[in-house]
Design brief:
Blueprint (H helix, E strand, L loop, with lengths): L4 H7 L2 E7 L1 H7 L3 E6 L3 E2 H11 L5 H5 L3 E4 L2 E2 L9 E2 L4 E5 L6
Parallel strand pairs: 1-7
Antiparallel strand pairs: 1-2, 3-6, 4-5, 4-7
Length: 100
């Protein structure tokens, strides 16, 4: 009889948009990535997926010092393994800016 709606929605691929600013943009070689997920992920998991998209780049060092916004909510002071990011949300990595 097919999948129930909850089963089919669980296996449906969705996207989290990741945006990079300043040095993060330079390190990633792009201003944004679209990361496919099958549901909510932690910020730590999302960061690992992003690093996998840019192997050999110095992106890991840059992300370690970035401020992070999940949608418009500052999330830098929270443990990345405890921050939940849902499909459809936008995560932004903002490196420290000189003079500001």
């Amino acid at each position: 009889m097919g999948d129930t709606p909850s089963e089919s929605s669980r296996s449906e691929t969705q996207v989290i948009e990741v945006r990079y600013w300043a040095a993060a943009k330079q390190a990633a070689g792009t201003d944004a990535d679209r990361v496919e997920v099958e549901g909510a992920v932690t910020l730590a998991d999302l960061q690992q997926r992003v690093l996998g998209l840019h192997p050999g780049a110095r992106l890991g060092d840059v992300l370690a010092v970035c401020s992070v916004l999940v949608d418009d909510r500052p999330s830098s002071s929270e443990e990345p393994g405890e921050v939940v990011v849902n499909p459809g949300q936008v995560v932004q990595f903002l490196p420290p800016f000189a003079g500001g």
